[in-house]
Fold this sequence. Notes:
Low-confidence stretches: none
Radius of gyration: 22 Å
Number of helices: 3
Number of strands: 0
Helix content: over 70%
Oligomer: single chain
Mean pLDDT: 91
Shape: elongated
Strand content: under 5%
Distance between the termini: 53 Å
Amino acid sequence: MAALTVRLPDDKHRRLKALAASRGTPLNRLIDEMTTLMLAEFDAETRFRLRASQGMGKEAEGLALLDKALHKQEKNL
């Protein structure tokens, strides 16, 4: 496990400590949870952008497939 030193304004540090205390968790765990969420969002955006780039120029085909799937679903209802 790595150690990381982060410089924060005193007010922000106090607020983070208060947030951690209100959740009954240590500040280190709070920061770990926050970074996990941010990394998950980053990974999802990265995957989305990759898939979008692979579909460039295929918009009409994709919309036609979506339309076909929606009409098939409507028939089954």
